[in-house]
Amino acid sequence: MAAATASDVSGYDRPTELKAFDQTKTGVKGLVDAGIRQIPRIFIHPPETTPKTSTTFEIPIVDLGSTDRASTVEKIRAASENLGFFQVVNHGIPVTVMDEMLQGVRRFHEQDMEVKKRIYSRDFSRSVVYNSNFDLYSSAAANWRDTFYSFMAPSPPPSDELSEVCRDIQIEYSNQVMKLGSLLFRLISEALGLNANHLRDLDCDKGLAFLGHCYPPCPQPDLTMGTTKHTDAGFLTVLLQDEIGGLQILHQNQWIDVPPTPGALVINIGDLLQASLMISNDKLRSVEHRVVANEKGLRVSVACFFTTALAPSTKVYGPIKELVSDENPPRYRETTVQEYSQYSFSTGLGVPRLDHLKI
To answer: What is residue 59's three-state secondary structure?
Structure first.
């Protein structure tokens, strides 16, 4: 597979190179392990999409152990409406569990390539899927990232189908995140001025997708992205990131670093909670974010998405009637989680997907 610089990205057979990369079943890490010095052309992004400049901004930290519930709810409301992102501490998940989860993801991606090849797939109906770039064939440029994926709720796969090198901690961590999600949805419901169980009664906390990301060190990080700018399609995302960092959010047309904070988890509002499944009618913000590529070392993270995308449900979501009035009419049409998830999956990252539902 030929490599290139940003100056000669045209005039090549991209579909053939995508297929050739995919068929190796070794992902981005396979390229790095092979010692490449220049990244393949399929990973090169247009220069205007890869500026790494960022500005300093304090990402709100919410102490979930606080006894002042009203203050906690207000902090979550302000962060969810203004920034779409916040961090939580004293969230109930032990640091030892978080650290072991990160090590488990690292073990998965660093295990023998032949073991990983056996589960490399683009069939997302499988209980465990490992591949590079879920939208490899639909995106404008590939991202410098490999991922393994499982739905851990409401129907987790049999434990023996999970990877041996991280199955125990994956189950433990996912169970802990489900408990945290129940608390967060209660607090967000209160922040919206609703009954504490409102979002939980809408099944927002019932489904959990687990993604274990690996961002290998990149020899030309200025030419590519770890993850293209995008919003998350689900209700809520809980992110555990290691010490390398690289996550940035877009705020007032500027990229802001979200540096790793020891013991903290990063929480962000998803599309289906902004429109919250058109539920909040834009009272909450699903914000574009990205991950920059780096030369420092292999970065791992765990993104847990609260979504019922695979659950066979006909439940229809639309703007919550309590949040709609003559002065604040509905901004989104009703949809099901499955319909919106299928649309989001087909478009890939980087497409403003909520426009699909605007009235």
So the answer is: coil
| DSSP H or E run through 181 | helix 167-191
Beta strands 85-89 and 61-63 are: parallel
Task: Give dist(CA 83, CA 307) in Å, integer.
Answer: 21
Per-residue confidence (pLDDT) for residue 12, from 0 to 100: 80
- Residues near 323 by Cβ (< 8 Å), separated by ≥ 6? 192, 279, 280, 281, 283
Contacts of 155 (CB under 8 A, 6+ apart): 311
pTM score above 0.90: no
Q: How confident is the model at residue 225 (pLDDT cuts 50, 70, 90)?
A: very high
**AA letter at 311:** A
271 touches 296 (CB < 8 A): no
Residue 162 CB-half CA count within 13 A:
22
Q: What confidence tens digit (pLDDT) does each residue in 336-356 have?
A: 656 655 555 556 555 555 555
Q: What's residue 351's pLDDT?
A: 54
Q: Strand pairing partners for 248? A: 257, 290
Strand order in the sheet with 254-257: 225-230, 289-292, 247-251, 254-257
What value does the mean pLDDT of the chain take?
Answer: 86
Q: How far apart are CA 162 and CA 254, in angstroms?
A: 39
| φ, ψ for residue 267, nearest 5 deg | -115, 135
Q: Residue 234: which pLDDT band, with cuts at 50, 70 and 90? A: confident
Closest to 235 (Cα-Cα) out of 212, 258, 268, 257: 268
Please choose, from the candidates 198, 218, 223, the residue with its C-alpha nearest in 3D space to the C-alpha of residue 277: 198
Of 267, 265, 266, 246, residue with least CA distance to 256: 246
Domains of the chain: 6-357 (2.60.120.330)
> Angle formed by the axes of helices 167-191 and 69-82, to 10°?
90
